[in-house]
Protein backbone atom coordinates (compact mmCIF):
# COMPACT_ATOMS: atom_id res chain seq x y z
CA UNK A 1 0.00 0.00 0.00
CA UNK A 2 1.40 3.36 -0.97
CA UNK A 3 -1.10 5.77 0.50
CA UNK A 4 -0.33 9.47 0.22
CA UNK A 5 -1.26 11.35 3.36
CA UNK A 6 -1.49 14.92 4.59
CA UNK A 7 -2.19 15.98 8.17
CA UNK A 8 -4.12 19.02 9.38
CA UNK A 9 -4.57 20.52 12.82
CA UNK A 10 -6.18 23.63 14.26
CA UNK A 11 -4.27 25.27 17.06
CA UNK A 12 -4.93 28.17 19.45
CA UNK A 13 -8.22 29.92 20.17
CA UNK A 14 -11.03 28.74 17.90
CA UNK A 15 -12.88 31.03 15.50
CA UNK A 16 -15.29 30.92 12.61
CA UNK A 17 -13.76 29.74 9.34
CA UNK A 18 -11.61 26.87 10.61
CA UNK A 19 -14.10 24.36 9.28
CA UNK A 20 -14.18 26.07 5.89
CA UNK A 21 -10.41 25.53 5.70
CA UNK A 22 -10.75 21.87 6.70
CA UNK A 23 -13.42 21.20 4.06
CA UNK A 24 -11.43 22.83 1.23
CA UNK A 25 -8.26 21.04 2.31
CA UNK A 26 -10.08 17.72 2.27
CA UNK A 27 -11.55 18.28 -1.19
CA UNK A 28 -8.26 19.51 -2.69
CA UNK A 29 -6.30 16.67 -1.08
CA UNK A 30 -8.78 14.07 -2.27
CA UNK A 31 -8.54 15.35 -5.82
CA UNK A 32 -4.77 14.84 -5.76
CA UNK A 33 -5.09 11.36 -4.24
CA UNK A 34 -4.19 12.19 -0.62
CA UNK A 35 -5.90 10.95 2.50
CA UNK A 36 -6.39 13.76 5.05
CA UNK A 37 -5.76 13.07 8.73
CA UNK A 38 -7.23 15.57 11.17
CA UNK A 39 -5.16 15.67 14.37
CA UNK A 40 -7.31 16.20 17.43
CA UNK A 41 -6.78 19.19 19.74
CA UNK A 42 -4.00 20.89 17.81
CA UNK A 43 -0.45 19.81 18.48
CA UNK A 44 -1.69 17.62 21.30
CA UNK A 45 -2.91 15.19 18.63
CA UNK A 46 0.46 14.67 16.99
CA UNK A 47 2.95 15.41 19.74
CA UNK A 48 2.18 12.17 21.57
CA UNK A 49 3.56 8.68 21.31
CA UNK A 50 0.21 7.50 19.92
CA UNK A 51 -1.11 10.23 17.62
CA UNK A 52 -4.80 11.02 17.99
CA UNK A 53 -6.47 11.72 14.66
CA UNK A 54 -9.51 11.10 12.53
CA UNK A 55 -9.49 10.30 8.85
CA UNK A 56 -11.52 13.06 7.25
CA UNK A 57 -14.15 11.98 4.75
CA UNK A 58 -17.01 13.26 2.60
CA UNK A 59 -19.53 12.87 5.38
CA UNK A 60 -17.55 14.93 7.91
CA UNK A 61 -16.46 17.49 5.33
CA UNK A 62 -19.85 18.26 3.82
CA UNK A 63 -21.04 21.77 2.92
CA UNK A 64 -22.25 22.51 6.47
CA UNK A 65 -18.60 23.00 7.42
CA UNK A 66 -18.56 26.13 5.29
CA UNK A 67 -20.75 28.01 7.73
CA UNK A 68 -20.19 26.32 11.10
CA UNK A 69 -17.92 27.96 13.66
CA UNK A 70 -15.37 26.06 15.76
CA UNK A 71 -13.28 23.13 14.61
CA UNK A 72 -14.47 19.58 13.91
CA UNK A 73 -11.03 18.39 14.98
CA UNK A 74 -10.98 20.58 18.11
CA UNK A 75 -8.33 23.11 19.01
CA UNK A 76 -6.09 23.73 21.95
CA UNK A 77 -4.11 26.54 23.55
CA UNK A 78 -0.99 26.52 25.69
CA UNK A 79 0.23 23.11 24.62
CA UNK A 80 3.85 24.26 24.59
CA UNK A 81 3.54 25.93 27.98
CA UNK A 82 2.04 22.79 29.51
CA UNK A 83 4.63 20.54 27.88
CA UNK A 84 7.50 22.68 29.20
CA UNK A 85 5.90 22.74 32.64
CA UNK A 86 5.69 18.95 32.61
CA UNK A 87 9.46 18.79 32.20
CA UNK A 88 9.72 18.08 28.47
CA UNK A 89 12.41 19.94 26.58
CA UNK A 90 12.00 21.50 23.15
CA UNK A 91 14.17 18.75 21.66
CA UNK A 92 11.99 16.06 23.32
CA UNK A 93 8.97 17.60 21.64
CA UNK A 94 10.74 17.95 18.30
CA UNK A 95 11.53 14.25 18.42
CA UNK A 96 7.97 13.19 19.35
CA UNK A 97 6.43 15.24 16.53
CA UNK A 98 8.99 14.02 14.03
CA UNK A 99 8.38 10.40 15.02
CA UNK A 100 4.60 10.78 14.71
CA UNK A 101 4.94 12.49 11.35
CA UNK A 102 7.17 9.72 10.02
CA UNK A 103 5.21 6.84 11.47
CA UNK A 104 2.08 8.10 9.73
CA UNK A 105 3.96 8.58 6.47
CA UNK A 106 2.81 12.17 6.05
CA UNK A 107 3.76 14.21 2.99
CA UNK A 108 3.04 17.41 4.88
CA UNK A 109 1.31 18.97 7.87
CA UNK A 110 -1.06 21.93 7.63
CA UNK A 111 -1.38 23.95 10.80
CA UNK A 112 -4.17 26.47 11.06
CA UNK A 113 -2.97 28.75 13.84
CA UNK A 114 -2.19 32.25 15.09
CA UNK A 115 1.01 34.05 16.01
CA UNK A 116 1.67 31.84 19.04
CA UNK A 117 1.27 28.63 17.04
CA UNK A 118 3.51 30.00 14.30
CA UNK A 119 6.27 30.69 16.83
CA UNK A 120 5.94 27.26 18.39
CA UNK A 121 5.88 25.46 15.05
CA UNK A 122 8.90 27.33 13.81
CA UNK A 123 10.80 26.31 16.93
CA UNK A 124 9.72 22.68 16.67
CA UNK A 125 10.42 22.25 12.98
CA UNK A 126 13.50 24.45 12.44
CA UNK A 127 16.51 22.47 11.35
CA UNK A 128 14.33 19.58 10.24
CA UNK A 129 13.85 19.77 6.52
CA UNK A 130 11.94 16.48 6.52
CA UNK A 131 9.00 18.01 8.34
CA UNK A 132 6.94 19.70 5.65
CA UNK A 133 4.81 22.38 7.28
CA UNK A 134 2.35 24.91 5.88
CA UNK A 135 0.70 27.39 8.23
CA UNK A 136 -2.66 29.01 7.54
CA UNK A 137 -3.16 32.16 9.64
CA UNK A 138 -6.25 32.25 11.82
CA UNK A 139 -7.14 34.62 14.60
CA UNK A 140 -10.05 36.91 15.31
CA UNK A 141 -7.40 39.43 16.45
CA UNK A 142 -5.97 39.69 12.90
CA UNK A 143 -2.55 40.33 14.44
CA UNK A 144 -0.45 38.04 12.22
CA UNK A 145 1.89 40.06 10.04
CA UNK A 146 2.32 39.65 6.26
CA UNK A 147 -1.36 38.92 5.62
CA UNK A 148 -4.20 41.40 5.20
CA UNK A 149 -6.62 38.99 6.85
CA UNK A 150 -6.42 35.91 9.04
CA UNK A 151 -9.26 33.38 9.14
CA UNK A 152 -11.91 34.36 11.69
CA UNK A 153 -11.31 38.10 11.77
CA UNK A 154 -13.93 39.13 9.24
CA UNK A 155 -16.60 36.99 10.91
CA UNK A 156 -15.70 38.49 14.30
CA UNK A 157 -16.07 42.01 12.89
CA UNK A 158 -19.53 41.08 11.62
CA UNK A 159 -20.54 39.53 14.94
CA UNK A 160 -19.34 42.61 16.85
CA UNK A 161 -21.04 45.01 14.43
CA UNK A 162 -24.32 43.09 14.77
CA UNK A 163 -24.01 43.14 18.56
CA UNK A 164 -23.40 46.90 18.58
CA UNK A 165 -26.53 47.30 16.50
CA UNK A 166 -28.46 45.53 19.27
CA UNK A 167 -26.93 47.80 21.89
CA UNK A 168 -27.74 50.95 19.92
CA UNK A 169 -31.47 50.76 20.66
CA UNK A 170 -30.90 50.86 24.41
CA UNK A 171 -28.34 53.66 24.07
CA UNK A 172 -30.82 55.64 22.00
CA UNK A 173 -33.95 54.96 24.07
CA UNK A 174 -32.26 55.76 27.37
CA UNK A 175 -29.95 58.50 26.05
CA UNK A 176 -27.01 56.73 27.55
CA UNK A 177 -23.37 56.06 26.91
CA UNK A 178 -22.84 52.38 26.13
CA UNK A 179 -19.32 51.00 26.41
CA UNK A 180 -18.75 47.84 24.34
CA UNK A 181 -15.65 45.86 25.30
CA UNK A 182 -14.27 43.68 22.51
CA UNK A 183 -11.44 41.17 22.19
CA UNK A 184 -8.24 41.51 20.18
CA UNK A 185 -5.49 40.98 22.74
CA UNK A 186 -2.83 43.61 22.02
CA UNK A 187 -4.22 44.60 18.64
CA UNK A 188 -7.11 46.95 17.92
CA UNK A 189 -8.29 45.63 14.54
CA UNK A 190 -11.64 44.25 15.74
CA UNK A 191 -12.43 47.45 17.66
CA UNK A 192 -11.39 49.74 14.80
CA UNK A 193 -13.17 47.91 11.98
CA UNK A 194 -16.38 47.12 13.88
CA UNK A 195 -16.39 50.54 15.53
CA UNK A 196 -16.28 52.35 12.19
CA UNK A 197 -18.83 49.95 10.68
CA UNK A 198 -21.23 50.67 13.57
CA UNK A 199 -20.89 54.44 13.76
CA UNK A 200 -19.12 54.47 17.15
CA UNK A 201 -18.26 57.87 18.61
CA UNK A 202 -15.17 56.65 20.44
CA UNK A 203 -12.91 53.72 19.49
CA UNK A 204 -10.13 52.89 21.93
CA UNK A 205 -7.37 50.52 20.82
CA UNK A 206 -4.23 49.21 22.54
CA UNK A 207 -1.94 50.81 19.98
CA UNK A 208 -2.88 54.39 21.00
CA UNK A 209 -3.21 55.49 24.61
CA UNK A 210 -6.34 57.44 25.43
CA UNK A 211 -7.05 60.55 27.48
CA UNK A 212 -10.06 59.92 29.73
CA UNK A 213 -10.90 63.63 29.77
CA UNK A 214 -11.24 63.60 25.98
CA UNK A 215 -13.42 60.47 26.17
CA UNK A 216 -15.68 62.27 28.66
CA UNK A 217 -15.80 65.38 26.46
CA UNK A 218 -16.82 63.28 23.47
CA UNK A 219 -19.54 61.53 25.51
CA UNK A 220 -20.90 64.90 26.69
CA UNK A 221 -20.94 66.35 23.17
CA UNK A 222 -22.64 63.26 21.71
CA UNK A 223 -25.31 63.27 24.40
CA UNK A 224 -26.01 66.98 24.02
CA UNK A 225 -26.12 66.74 20.22
CA UNK A 226 -29.20 65.83 18.19
CA UNK A 227 -28.01 62.21 18.30
CA UNK A 228 -28.48 62.09 22.09
CA UNK A 229 -26.47 58.93 22.89
CA UNK A 230 -22.92 57.68 22.66
CA UNK A 231 -21.30 54.40 21.60
CA UNK A 232 -17.80 53.66 22.84
CA UNK A 233 -15.96 50.60 21.52
CA UNK A 234 -13.06 49.55 23.71
CA UNK A 235 -10.48 46.88 22.91
CA UNK A 236 -9.76 44.67 25.91
CA UNK A 237 -6.18 45.83 26.60
CA UNK A 238 -6.33 49.60 26.02
CA UNK A 239 -4.32 51.88 28.27
CA UNK A 240 -4.93 55.35 29.64
CA UNK A 241 -2.19 57.83 28.78
CA UNK A 242 -0.95 58.07 32.37
CA UNK A 243 -1.37 54.42 33.20
CA UNK A 244 -0.01 51.08 32.04
CA UNK A 245 -1.60 47.71 32.71
CA UNK A 246 0.86 45.39 34.24
CA UNK A 247 1.16 43.05 31.26
CA UNK A 248 2.39 40.05 33.17
CA UNK A 249 2.21 36.42 32.26
CA UNK A 250 -0.02 34.19 34.35
CA UNK A 251 1.51 31.02 32.98
CA UNK A 252 4.78 31.46 34.80
CA UNK A 253 6.67 30.74 31.60
CA UNK A 254 7.82 34.00 30.13
CA UNK A 255 8.61 32.65 26.68
CA UNK A 256 5.00 31.83 25.76
CA UNK A 257 3.01 34.29 27.81
CA UNK A 258 -0.76 34.28 27.85
CA UNK A 259 -2.34 37.26 29.50
CA UNK A 260 -6.02 37.44 30.33
CA UNK A 261 -7.44 40.93 30.09
CA UNK A 262 -10.70 41.90 31.65
CA UNK A 263 -12.59 44.79 33.12
CA UNK A 264 -11.59 47.79 31.03
CA UNK A 265 -15.13 48.34 29.68
CA UNK A 266 -16.61 48.51 33.17
CA UNK A 267 -13.77 50.77 34.33
CA UNK A 268 -14.42 53.30 31.56
CA UNK A 269 -18.17 53.11 32.15
CA UNK A 270 -17.60 53.84 35.88
CA UNK A 271 -15.48 56.90 35.03
CA UNK A 272 -18.21 58.21 32.71
CA UNK A 273 -20.84 57.67 35.44
CA UNK A 274 -18.75 59.90 37.74
CA UNK A 275 -19.60 62.83 35.43
CA UNK A 276 -23.31 62.29 36.10
CA UNK A 277 -23.94 60.66 32.72
CA UNK A 278 -25.71 57.31 32.69
CA UNK A 279 -23.42 54.63 31.25
CA UNK A 280 -23.39 50.84 30.96
CA UNK A 281 -20.73 48.37 29.94
CA UNK A 282 -21.27 45.32 27.73
CA UNK A 283 -18.55 42.71 27.41
CA UNK A 284 -18.94 40.72 24.19
CA UNK A 285 -16.43 38.02 25.17
CA UNK A 286 -16.42 34.68 23.40
CA UNK A 287 -19.50 35.32 21.27
CA UNK A 288 -16.91 37.00 19.00
CA UNK A 289 -15.31 33.65 18.28
CA UNK A 290 -18.52 32.02 17.04
CA UNK A 291 -21.36 32.85 14.70
CA UNK A 292 -22.16 31.76 11.16
CA UNK A 293 -18.95 32.03 9.16
CA UNK A 294 -19.01 35.18 7.05
CA UNK A 295 -18.92 34.88 3.28
CA UNK A 296 -15.43 36.41 3.27
CA UNK A 297 -14.09 33.80 5.70
CA UNK A 298 -15.72 30.99 3.71
CA UNK A 299 -13.99 32.23 0.58
CA UNK A 300 -10.66 32.85 2.32
CA UNK A 301 -10.78 29.44 4.02
CA UNK A 302 -11.45 27.75 0.71
CA UNK A 303 -8.57 29.55 -1.06
CA UNK A 304 -6.14 28.89 1.81
CA UNK A 305 -7.06 25.19 2.06
CA UNK A 306 -6.55 24.58 -1.66
CA UNK A 307 -3.24 26.47 -1.74
CA UNK A 308 -1.87 24.61 1.30
CA UNK A 309 -2.43 21.26 -0.40
CA UNK A 310 -0.79 22.53 -3.60
CA UNK A 311 2.30 23.64 -1.70
CA UNK A 312 2.65 20.26 -0.03
CA UNK A 313 2.14 18.47 -3.33
CA UNK A 314 4.88 20.65 -4.85
CA UNK A 315 7.22 20.09 -1.89
CA UNK A 316 7.27 23.82 -1.31
CA UNK A 317 6.86 23.95 2.46
CA UNK A 318 8.03 25.91 5.53
CA UNK A 319 5.54 28.54 4.38
CA UNK A 320 2.88 30.81 5.85
CA UNK A 321 -0.05 31.49 3.54
CA UNK A 322 -1.05 35.12 3.27
CA UNK A 323 -3.87 37.05 1.69
CA UNK A 324 -2.49 40.20 0.12
CA UNK A 325 -4.46 42.49 -2.20
CA UNK A 326 -6.96 39.80 -3.24
CA UNK A 327 -4.27 37.16 -3.87
CA UNK A 328 -3.17 34.17 -1.83
CA UNK A 329 0.61 34.13 -1.62
CA UNK A 330 3.08 32.24 0.56
CA UNK A 331 6.04 33.54 2.53
CA UNK A 332 8.76 31.64 4.33
CA UNK A 333 7.90 31.15 8.00
CA UNK A 334 11.48 31.96 9.04
CA UNK A 335 11.27 35.31 7.22
CA UNK A 336 8.03 36.21 8.97
CA UNK A 337 9.57 35.30 12.32
CA UNK A 338 12.71 37.35 11.59
CA UNK A 339 10.68 40.37 10.54
CA UNK A 340 8.11 40.36 13.38
CA UNK A 341 5.13 38.07 13.52
CA UNK A 342 2.88 40.56 15.23
CA UNK A 343 0.87 43.07 13.27
CA UNK A 344 -0.56 46.18 14.93
CA UNK A 345 -2.65 49.15 13.87
CA UNK A 346 -0.37 51.92 12.66
CA UNK A 347 -0.88 55.67 12.90
CA UNK A 348 -1.25 55.91 9.14
CA UNK A 349 -3.55 52.87 8.76
CA UNK A 350 -6.32 53.86 6.32
CA UNK A 351 -9.00 52.86 8.84
CA UNK A 352 -7.44 54.92 11.61
CA UNK A 353 -7.27 57.89 9.27
CA UNK A 354 -10.87 57.29 8.18
CA UNK A 355 -12.12 57.16 11.78
CA UNK A 356 -10.39 60.44 12.61
CA UNK A 357 -11.69 62.00 9.43
CA UNK A 358 -15.30 61.34 10.45
CA UNK A 359 -14.80 62.74 13.95
CA UNK A 360 -14.31 59.56 15.99
CA UNK A 361 -12.02 59.89 19.03
CA UNK A 362 -9.43 57.08 18.62
CA UNK A 363 -7.01 58.02 21.38
CA UNK A 364 -3.89 60.14 21.30
CA UNK A 365 -2.76 59.57 17.70
O1 LIG B 1 -6.55 35.40 20.50
C1 LIG B 1 -7.93 35.24 20.40
C2 LIG B 1 -8.62 35.64 21.67
O2 LIG B 1 -10.00 35.47 21.49
C3 LIG B 1 -8.28 37.03 22.16
O3 LIG B 1 -8.95 38.04 21.46
C4 LIG B 1 -8.64 36.92 23.63
O4 LIG B 1 -7.91 37.82 24.44
C5 LIG B 1 -8.23 35.50 23.94
O5 LIG B 1 -8.23 34.78 22.73
C6 LIG B 1 -9.13 34.80 24.93
O6 LIG B 1 -8.56 33.57 25.19
P1 LIG B 1 -9.27 32.42 26.04
O7 LIG B 1 -10.31 31.76 25.17
O8 LIG B 1 -8.16 31.52 26.40
O9 LIG B 1 -9.90 33.11 27.21
Structure description:
This protein has 2 domains: 5-151 and 291-339, Rossmann fold (3-Layer(aba) Sandwich), CATH 3.40.50.450; 156-289 and 346-357, Rossmann fold, CATH 3.40.50. With 365 residues, it is of the alpha/beta class. The longest helix is centred in the middle third of the chain and has 22 residues, at 153-174. It is elongated and about 75 Å long. It is built from 11 helices and 11 strands. The strands form 2 sheets. Strands 3-2-1-4-5-10-11 form a 7-stranded mixed beta sheet, sandwiched between helices. A 4-stranded parallel beta sheet has the order 7-8-6-9, with helices on both faces. Bound molecules: 6-O-phosphono-beta-D-fructofuranose. Residues 13, 77, 139-141, 183-185, 236, 289 line the site of 6-O-phosphono-beta-D-fructofuranose (F6P).
Under the CATH scheme, which architecture of the largest domain would be assigned?
3-Layer(aba) Sandwich
- Tell me the β content: 15-25%
Q: What small molecules are bound in this structure?
A: 6-O-phosphono-beta-D-fructofuranose
Major beta sheet summary:
7 strands, mixed
CATH class category label of the largest domain: Alpha Beta
Which of globular, elongated, flat, extended, rod-shaped describes the shape?
A: elongated
Q: Care to give the gist of this entry?
A:
The chain is α/β, with parallel strands linked by helices. The chain folds into two domains: 5-151 and 291-339, 3-Layer(aba) Sandwich (Rossmann fold); 156-289 and 346-357, Phosphofructokinase domain (Rossmann fold, 3-Layer(aba) Sandwich).
Key features?
single chain, 365 residues, alpha/beta, Rossmann fold, 2 domains, 7-stranded mixed sheet, 37% helix, binds 6-O-phosphono-beta-D-fructofuranose
